[in-house]
Amino acid sequence: MESETEQLIAYVERNIERTLADCTTCGKCFDACPMTEYSAALNGKTGPEVVAGIRSLLAGDGGTPAALEWTRVCTQSARCIPACPENVNPMLMMRLSRITALGSTGGPALLPDGKRDPNFFRRINAFSALQFSDAELAAWQR
Ligand code: SF4
User: Fold this and answer.
1) What angle do CA 12, 18, 21 make, to 5 degrees?
2) pLDDT for the residue 5
3) For ligand 1, is residue 28 a contact (CB within 6 Å)?
4) Residues near 137 by beta carbon (within 8 Å), at least 6 away in sequence
5) Dihedral, CA atoms, 71, 72, 76, 81, nearest 10 degrees?
6) Which of 10, 68, 71, 131 is deepest in the core (most CB within 10 A)?
7) DSSP symbol at 19
8) Rounded to whole angstroms, how far apart are CA atoms 74 and 82?
9) Does 90 contact ligand 1 (Cβ within 6 A)?
């Protein structure tokens, strides 16, 4: 029987897999993000370019400096959600990116502060409970 930790990691991995399958790297979520203008490192970057880095990060390939920067500045405004034409939920994609970049799933810590997230599991639970209805959670977990 899987422990709660194993179940949560499996939940994260399932959602990463689903995001990688459904995201077309169109970049519309990046274009809708209100935080990018506050980061000089994201100046001039295009949505497809940065999202390609997010996909690389989620796939375990390390991402790009721009993808890590977007992950760092994300405040979960949720403006990206209606911008996505593929029903991916980019806000969840960014949360998964942050979890991955912090090394919370066992990979290297890639964000500048380099810390592992001590509240990873508590935050996953809270995030799941706060952001989704039961029906939406069931859809994500399929
Ligand atoms: S808007 Fe949706 S499909 Fe387009 S890059 Fe963002 S998550 Fe992927």
Assistant:
1) 140
2) 76
3) yes
4) 128
5) -20
6) 71
7) H
8) 16
9) yes
Residue with tokens 């999202």: 51
Q: Which helix (H) or strand (E) holds 120?
A: helix 120-131
| Rounded CA separation 122/128 (Å) | 10
How do the pLDDT tens digits run along the chain, 142 residues long? 677 778 888 889 999 999 999 999 999 999 999 999 999 999 999 999 999 999 999 999 999 999 999 999 999 999 999 999 999 999 999 999 998 998 877 888 888 654 455 555 555 555 554 555 556 555 554 4
Q: Which two tokens stand for residue 25?
A: 């790297």
Position of tokens 């809270």? 126
Domain ranges in the chain?
A: 4-141
Distance 1 CA to ligand 1 centre (A): 35
3 alpha carbon to ligand 1 midpoint, in Å?
A: 32
Which pLDDT value is given to residue 133? 56
Q: What's the Rg (C-alpha) of the chain?
A: 14
Nearest to 77 by CA among 47, 35, 38: 35
